[in-house]
Design goal:
It is built from 10 helices and no strands. The chain has helices spanning 2-16, 20-31, 34-59, 64-88, 96-106, 112-124, 126-142, 146-157, 160-186, 191-211. The chain has one domain (2-211).
Amino acid sequence: MLQAFTASLLLITVSELGDKTFFIAVILSMRYDHRTVFSSVLVALALMTVISVMLGQAISLLPKAYVHYAAIALFLIFGIKLIIDAIKMPSQSDGVVVKEAEEAVEEKNSIPIFGKFFGKMSARYPHLGIWIQACVMTFIAEWGDRTQISTIALAAANDPVSVTLGAILGHAICTVIAVIGGRLVAGRISERIITGVGGGLFLIFGITAYFS
């Protein structure tokens, strides 16, 4: 249980730090109340974690050998891909992830239904409107992300409660950093280093799972 908790905590913290949802939280915290942004982003990430763990548990119903080797393959493939991506990145990142996060924040107004909904909600209940906007935006951005896939893989092969608690704590740590010190940290985060470290962790977990 402790191993599953530690693995999910480390993997989520490193993978989420500098991810698109991290920068979405940074951008929103610069515009709105910190407590509102923190609670909405964390709720969205916690909900995504619970869904991912449930999917992982559903996958665990398959034959153990298939699940075991599929998880190993997934970690190794992700690890190799991230390390290759890190090698290809320039030493001075051009902030692609930051630009994607900015586009995600601005795109909410390009969809008429959501634009009107959030506009009316913000006008009547400012804090609630902002909370819902940040929560929905974060949930959509996190769907299909590598942190979700890794959570599913961990939950399929480990104790679901430990994976859930570790992943949510990892998300909480990254959200605190984004909301409180995001403006200072964002400019100092090297996407190349974070991507490389994340790839190394995926490889370590894959190798560990193979020999366990």
